[in-house]
Amino acid sequence: MGKIRVLVVDDSVLARSLLRAYLENDSAIEVVGEAENGRKAVQLVNELRPDLVTMDLAMPVMSGIEAIAEIMATQAVPILVVSAVADAQNAYAAVASGSLDVLSKQGADADEGAAFVAKVKLLSSVRVISHIRSRLSSQATVEPVSLSPDVVAAPPPEVNQQRVFAIASSTGGPQALALILGKLPAAFPCPILISQHIADGFAPGMVKWLTGISKLPVRLAQDGEKIMPATVYLSPSETNLVVSPSRCLRLDKASPGEMYHPRCDELLGSVAEVYGRQS
């Protein structure tokens, strides 16, 4: 089996060098090229046919979001967004355009480097398809869409207190969540608890992004918060979301060195224990 061929895209020479160093430290990975802007990235994807692209977002000539839309419409390939935490909102616009996942820009920490390389290996094997509508829709997904006044003002529907929906997701999860939540009506009667593997700092951006897609209110889970019907709760990345015996939310601090967090099994286990098989 050949090496995983990666194209690194970032306008910072230092950032490209650091990502290259992490990747080339693994014998299973080969960096086949670098691009300093989105236009060059589109060109190199067509020429080099990499197995995966790491993509920055804020770049000259052509932004990362524009490049993702172009690549996914013409020469689809797994794309991992590697962005600054402050750009979380745009990072999820990139996911809507076709990228598979987002990570914060790496420092010199060895654990961060190991997590980055593991993510690259995992995503490189994901089969992706061309997004025919990417060119038309990418710009529209950059800014979150506010919920209409009638949705916000609607009273909570009646709910069966014995039911709650828990979703645990990892690679490809953001796109799956967008699809699921976008189909649910404003009158959906049950709470939805989500544990999505996500890089530190990106959860608030994901909440804003999903808010623009879902008719239900989406919020970041708070420790001790009472679970309410017709509400979507997303676990912060730095903690593990669980349900307490009193049916309130509880946030447990993640253990040091956990590569994938929040831990999905923690949420599913607590929901099964508190709500039983009907959950």
Residue windows where pLDDT falls under 50 for at least 5 positions: 133-157
Instruction: Give the N-to-C terminal Cα separation.
Output: 43 Å
Mean pLDDT: 81
Number of helices: 10
Helix fraction?
Answer: 25-40%
Residue fraction in strands? 15-25%
Query: How many DSSP E strands?
Result: 11
Shape from CA axes?
A: elongated
What is the chain-wise order of helices and strands? Answer: EHEHEHEHEHHHEHEHEEEEH
Largest sheet: 5 strands, parallel
Biggest sheet: strand arrangement:
2-1-3-4-5
**Structural class, from helix and strand content?**
alpha/beta
Query: What is the radius of gyration?
Result: 19 Å
Write the layout of secondary structure elements.
Elements: E1 4-9, H1 13-24, E2 29-35, H2 38-48, E3 52-55, H3 64-74, E4 79-83, H4 88-97, E5 101-104, H5 110-124, H6 134-137, H7 149-153, E6 165-169, H8 173-183, E7 192-196, H9 203-211, E8 218-220, E9 232-234, E10 239-243, E11 249-253, H10 264-275
Parallel strand pairs: 1-2, 1-3, 3-4, 4-5, 6-7, 7-9, 8-9
Antiparallel strand pairs: 10-11
Helix pairs in contact: 2-3, 3-4, 4-9
